[in-house]
Amino acid sequence: MAGVGAALSDALTLPCGAVLRCRIAKPAMSDSLGSGAGDATPEQARLYQRWAAGGAALSIVGEVQGDPHALENPGNLVLHAGGDMDALRDVTRRATASGAHLWAQLGHAGALAHAGIGRRVGPSSLSLDGLTCAEMPVGEIEELPARYAATARIAKAVGFTGVQVHAAHGFLLSQFLSPLFNRRSDIWGGALDNRMRLLLTVVDAVRAAVGSDFPVGVKINATDGLAGGLSNQESLAAIRVLARQGIDLLEVSEGTYFPGAPSSSESEGGGVHGFCRRVRAAVPVPVMAAGGFKTRVQAVAALEGEIVDVVGVARGLVLDPDLPRAWTDGVDEDPTFPRFAGPLPEGGVTAWYTMRIAALAAHTEVGYDLKPQTALAAMAERDRERAGRWVARFGDPSGGR
Ligand SMILES: Cc1cc2nc3c(=O)[nH]c(=O)nc-3n(C[C@H](O)[C@H](O)[C@H](O)COP(=O)(O)O)c2cc1C
Questions:
Q1: Does the beta carbon of 269 sit less than 6 angstroms from any atom of ligand 1?
Q2: Per-residue pLDDT tens for 331-344?
Q3: 199: three-class secondary structure by DSSP
Q4: Domains in the chain, start-ordered, CATH in brackets?
């Protein structure tokens, strides 16, 4: 991609031939607005219609699961044969009618599966304060690529226009990449070639399932931000290999949701921009930075400076879903980011944005002024209520294993 400094309103043709109508995308955000039984809701249809109408070229639905026991949150979507396909089609139809893309982020929360109703497994067992998980058996690892492929096939069938494999933020595929969390001594652990084997196999299986003309992206960490975790150097080495697998958009993020660790949805953002520049110079795959864009000037500079091909704006589009339209029209109208008085509870900022997403979906965002603590409590209450529905629908978290 080097050598093509672009403007915000320029279209981008992805390697598979699909076209993004401009350079602004909404990265995956777990909207937590599913039915509680893995199905799509009218709230989600309204939400993604709003982001499309606001001018974003692409919205990625966060944490779409193939395995209901690998959920990140009981508001996640689950794509399975018994699901409500009409509800999913309503979301994809309304979100793509104006020419925007809607991709499903294929997730598996791994050790971070939702407490109580998820099955916590990772490449290696963990016993940390506040977080324990079991080691994933080889047989289960071997089943995963087919599971991701089946999920991608359903995503395509119900009208998503692309998929993104989630390999960032400490969820399962990110844990496999990380030497801190993956201490296996079989072919799935050890040297980087082994630690990235699962991601590569998943990407291959997904590509085979959706065909060569359907967008397949990957979200990967530049670094976990943890001592002994994935380094920039190893991430870049993994990206070089991934780029040869025929992917369409590489989204670069950082951080993990492990207790006490830095997370992407709570950080100031922008920490990955320097790394994106290196990636963009190293591989011929379009690069998107997950966040760190608060102003139009920053977004234009990142495109013109050949740091990224696509500007990912997550929290900014929760504050103002019409931002892409304004920015591509040349209006320097930037969102006003909230300033929270500390000390903040862990996850409080993410909860504030999560509940504001719900307000956007309900068109009640004007006057939204929850405190992070109140947002956390509201989210927990909503999750508790949905957790019961989840277990009633999908059964015991051990998944019969
Ligand atoms: C409420 C919320 C939910 C998020 N959920 C996801 C998710 O499901 N998957 C994901 O890859 N990233 C998720 N993120 C991280 C964003 O995609 C993005 O990487 C991060 O917010 C930085 O971008 P920003 O500075 O534009 O906000 C989430 C962020 C927020 C604020």
A1: yes
A2: 988 999 999 887 88
A3: helix
A4: 12-394 (3.20.20.70)
